[in-house]
């Protein structure tokens, strides 16, 4: 029995120690710093209470980031899931090359946000314009990254390209776990393909939808890397009568605030991001789980 | 697969079935090309001079020799040590994956095999922490790592061991969660028999349980590997943007910052960043896809 207890402690120690040091301790420091006047320069940190939180919702740049992050998330969740679900249907169909396609669609997921941000910046600003010029297509002749109302869509297209292949695999796993007899029985009864997808496949895949919606929701909310290298927050626009960055998402707003030495304000924003994520994730999972139960 | 392969057929006449199949094939090929265009454009334009790109970004390169010229420009660059970043990235990723896989598997096994409150609590805390966004931790973490490094008399900031330690902390949650789900389905009888035979707990784990984890290990390695290899914020905070230790994403941003709009160099640096990952994927794609699908719904 003694050996067992010793093994328990020794086996748990490395991960628990790293986890406490890297996540738990900084997390509570992070909560505390949001209630101080920490500026990253002065060594003295004084407690000032909820002042930063009171101020947050009067800051146009923060409000704007909050709003476009929600807009981006709404667009992105729908786009990514429609594309990845369609891809999962394609690669589980009877196409001869389905495994080749499956491997191919997954490739963009291997590329990090930083690198693909530059690649797509080049595509939007050079390739699409060159295509637009040579074929005289009007709407391609101005970069989608240069206009406040198209830049969010452009980011969503890039994110869809990156994540679809990964979510496709989650849907594929779900499709493969459905007994084929169900679909075959419906087919024998003469139900057309689309009807079978809507009435059998989608309800049976409720679990996969819960997972992929959760992943896309949280990832869209926390997006930073691609935002940073694709647009760096640009172009400039106006919001509530003040100049703001049109594509500066929530996470980037936090980083930019910290780089201006407003560390405590950045912490308060980050805590708001955390709370928003928790609330959104809880609502989404609760709704989806209820749907799963009904099936 | 084959059991579901008839889903897309109309099941009526042969003609409409064939028409449906051709339509599906056409749509798929179109989508596939769309997905691959960015890669093609990176390769084409990495083989051009800056002038050529500005003149015509969608043309075929004038000479492929320019690709080697661009690559040697990257590797011989004075401002950014690209080769060094390669080595550092490789070391950080490799060592982090090693400690994450071994230590997370050990912890998950202990948490599954002990039906006690403390085991449930530890597991719950690990899982709950997955919701914490990195932005809440990142600045306090850097400050704390400096303090901790002073206390342990071991430099954590700006070093590879510091990086690996941080990745173990961030990676353990998801990895323990995945291993936990898998170990639950391993029958206990094997271990019980070994215990009766007088086998120690550590031997049971390393000789019986650990080898059984191979299929799920692929999933854990891929998910963590993709994340660590491409990560930017954590390395830039721990290592700094021009410290002695660098990673590839930091090197690529350094290039883009130093050579504004010089797409020949920026694109070549992204091409070099992508290449090792793509090559690895081409060799191991069957295992990678299989591992990802198996680990997806657990």
Automatic annotation (TrEMBL), chain A:
UniProt domain ABC transmembrane type-1: residue ranges: 66-284
* Subcellular location per the Swiss-Prot or TrEMBL entry: Cell membrane
What SUPFAM superfamilies does the database record attribute to this sequence? MetI-like (SSF161098)
Q: Which GO terms describe its cellular component?
A: plasma membrane
What Pfam families does the entry give? BPD_transp_1 (PF00528)
Using the UniProt record, give the first listed, main subcellular location: membrane
The GO biological-process annotations, alphabetized, read as:
transmembrane transport
Q: How does it sit in the membrane?
A: Multi-pass membrane protein
Query: What is the name of this protein?
Result: Raffinose/stachyose/melibiose transport system permease protein
TrEMBL record, chain B:
Question: Which GO CC annotations does the UniProt entry carry?
Answer: plasma membrane
The cellular location(s) given in this protein's UniProt record come to:
Cell membrane
User: Which UniProt keywords are present, listed alphabetically?
Assistant: Cell membrane, Membrane, Transmembrane, Transmembrane helix, Transport
Example of a GO biological process term:
transmembrane transport
Principal place of residence: membrane
Q: Which residues form the ABC transmembrane type-1 domain?
A: 86-284
Q: Where is the chain membrane-spanning?
A: 21-44, 90-112, 119-142, 162-183, 204-229, 265-284
Family the UniProt entry places it in: Belongs to the binding-protein-dependent transport system permease family.
Its recorded name reads Raffinose/stachyose/melibiose transport system permease protein
Give the source species: Spirochaeta isovalerica
């Amino acid at each position: 029995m003694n050996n067992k207890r010793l093994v328990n402690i020794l086996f748990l120690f490395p991960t628990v120690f790293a986890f406490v040091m890297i996540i738990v301790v900084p997390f509570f420091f992070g909560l505390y710093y949001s209630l101080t006047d920490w500026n990253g320069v002065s060594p003295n940190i004084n407690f000032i209470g909820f002042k930063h939180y009171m101020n947050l919702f009067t800051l146009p740049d923060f409000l704007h980031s909050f709003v476009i992050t929600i807009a981006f998330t709404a667009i992105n969740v729908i786009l990514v899931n429609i594309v990845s679900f369609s891809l999962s249907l394609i690669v589980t169909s009877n196409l001869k090359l389905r495994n080749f396609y499956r491997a191919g669609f997954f490739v963009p997921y291997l590329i990090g946000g930083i690198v693909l941000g530059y690649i797509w910046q080049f595509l939007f600003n050079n390739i699409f314009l060159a295509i637009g010029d040579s074929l005289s297509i009007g709407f391609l002749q101005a970069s989608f990254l240069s206009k406040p109302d198209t830049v969010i869509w452009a980011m969503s297209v890039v994110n869809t390209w990156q994540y679809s292949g990964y979510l496709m695999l989650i849907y594929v796993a779900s499709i493969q776990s459905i007994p084929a007899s169900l679909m075959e029985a419906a087919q024998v009864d003469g139900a057309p393909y689309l009807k079978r997808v809507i009435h059998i496949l989608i309800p049976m895949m409720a679990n996969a939808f819960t997972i992929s919606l959760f992943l896309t929701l949280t990832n869209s909310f926390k997006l930073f890397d691609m935002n940073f290298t694709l647009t760096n927050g640009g172009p400039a626009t106006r919001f509530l009568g003040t100049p703001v960055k049109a594509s500066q998402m929530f996470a980037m707003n936090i980083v930019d605030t910290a780089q201006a030495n407003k560390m405590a304000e950045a912490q308060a924003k980050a805590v708001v991001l955390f709370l928003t994520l928790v609330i959104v994730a809880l609502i989404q999972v609760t709704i989806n789980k209820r749907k799963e139960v009904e099936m | 697969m084959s059991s579901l392969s008839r889903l897309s057929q109309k099941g009526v006449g042969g003609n409409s079935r064939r028409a449906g199949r051709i339509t599906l094939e056409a749509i798929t090929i179109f989508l596939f090309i769309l997905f691959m265009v960015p890669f093609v454009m990176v390769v084409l334009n990495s083989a051009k001079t800056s002038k050529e790109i500005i003149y015509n970004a969608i043309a075929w390169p004038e000479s492929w020799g320019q690709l080697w010229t661009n690559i040697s420009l990257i590797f011989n660059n004075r401002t950014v040590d690209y080769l060094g970043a390669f080595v550092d990235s490789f070391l950080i990723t490799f060592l982090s994956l090693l400690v994450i896989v071994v230590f997370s598997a050990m912890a998950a096994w202990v948490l599954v095999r002990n039906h006690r409150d403390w085991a449930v609590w530890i597991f719950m805390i690990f899982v709950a922490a997955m919701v914490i966004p990195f932005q809440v931790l990142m600045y306090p973490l850097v400050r704390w790592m400096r303090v901790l490094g002073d206390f342990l008399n071991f430099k954590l900031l700006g070093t590879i061991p510091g990086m690996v330690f941080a990745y173990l902390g961030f990676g353990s949650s998801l990895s323990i969660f995945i291993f936990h789900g898998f170990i639950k389905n391993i029958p206990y009888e094997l271990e019980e028999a070994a215990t009766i035979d007088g086998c120690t707990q550590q031997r049971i784990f390393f000789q019986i349980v650990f080898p059984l984890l191979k299929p799920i290990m692929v999933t854990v390695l891929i998910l963590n590997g993709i994340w660590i290899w491409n990560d930017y914020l954590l390395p830039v905070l721990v290592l700094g943007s021009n410290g002695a230790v660098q990673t590839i994403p930091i090197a690529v941003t350094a290039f883009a910052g130093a050579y504004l709009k010089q797409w020949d160099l920026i694109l070549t640096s992204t091409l070099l960043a992508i290449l090792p990952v793509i090559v690895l994927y081409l060799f191991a794609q069957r295992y990678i896809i299989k591992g990802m699908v198996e680990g997806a719904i657990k």
